[in-house]
What we know:
CATH superfamily of the largest domain: Alanine racemase
Helix content: 25-40%
Number of domains: 2
Distance between the termini: 66 Å
Shape: globular
Strand content: 25-35%
Largest sheet: 9 strands, mixed
CATH class of the largest domain: Alpha Beta
Structural class: alpha/beta
Bound molecules: pyridoxal-5'-phosphate
Number of strands: 23
Amino acid sequence: xxxxxxxxxxxxxxxxxxxxxxxxxxxxxxxxxxxxxxxxxxxxxxxxxxxxxxxxxxxxxxxxxxxxxxxxxxxxxxxxxxxxxxxxxxxxxxxxxxxxxxxxxxxxxxxxxxxxxxxxxxxxxxxxxxxxxxxxxxxxxxxxxxxxxxxxxxxxxxxxxxxxxxxxxxxxxxxxxxxxxxxxxxxxxxxxxxxxxxxxxxxxxxxxxxxxxxxxxxxxxxxxxxxxxxxxxxxxxxxxxxxxxxxxxxxxxxxxxxxxxxxxxxxxxxxxxxxxxxxxxxxxxxxxxxxxxxxxxxxxxxxxxxxxxxxxxxxxxxxxxxxxxxxxxxxxxxxxxxxxxxxxxxxxxxxxxxxxxxxxxxxxxxxxxxxxxxxxxxxxxxxxxxxxxxxxxxxxxxxxxxxxxxxxxxxxxxxxxxxxxxxxxxxxxxxxxxxxxxxxxxxx
Length: 444
Ligand SMILES: *Cc1c(COP(=O)(O)O)cnc(C)c1O
């Protein structure tokens, strides 16, 4: 394979320097490894900022107002939240933990939206007493708790109703399901949404501002969004007539697809924006309704491609005429997606990017699970011990889903921007484990 083909595989803001090292946003990845060790997750902050402004650009040229909320479950850290606070985006949180960290980072409360199918009383109390921007109500139990808490805190709260629209988007198709079989939201087909609207309408301190639906993830087509928009707007019209329901905000969720491997060809953001906004306009006009404000919630598409995982190569095992396993010093503990979703990744040897001698190998993690494989069948320059493997597009649902399985410490997280690096999250150490532990000696 020639140089060109390799270069084609690199992600944006990546280059190769004179030493044949992978460079991300001006920082040599070999220097990062020397400084911080492996495994390490590197985030290209310039690329995150580019993605945010691309989303805002794509959605801003339409008549109705729009709001971009970063779905922080994809990746959160104090420093990321601090950076996002300056970026004029909103933020989705799904737990008291994410809310706590966002508030610690000084993220503007009024721009925080709280999601989740099982928000606890304590979590809702934190959200309501802090007067965050919006709660996305998911179920009847929550309505009762929010009523109680708004009374207790003597405050009002804006809410969206999460609807299970019976539309499920898969990577290249969407499925319209009659009975929406999902743990999230109020079911559209069985009348749950109507019941919820009636209940919420009767509660003075809950201010219902609209509807929310999220149809899936890693979506490469626009039709799923359009079908949901059509459904929800025509329903909203019915509810306007029946219950005086106002659709001020329509939140169409996240799910915009990204490039993990060369197989993935994500749509330009303008295509999603155009499809979403034209469907909204069309169905608002058909139903003689005002244009609602449109909110979107990208997670993966903001941080996914900006993340690169660097690992050190250790042992190798060749099974004649079957395959060669090359093991790295991380795996499912820092990136569960291959094991959980059969997710596919690609990458390069970061210290020998454009070398010609190549072979096909499979990359194994170090956890005690046969399923701990990061990449099956990748073509790389013949790997040696202590080479560095860079795995691309690991920025979403990697670190945020990381575990301590096998007591593997969570990796360090390093931000890079314009040639500078910054340790955003230090590597976990065995001493960190002890903070949670109690000795049996203390059991008197
Ligand atoms: C997960 C999730 C998102 C983000 O999805 P991505 O695929 O990362 O864009 C947005 N909204 C809701 C409600 C989600 O659950």
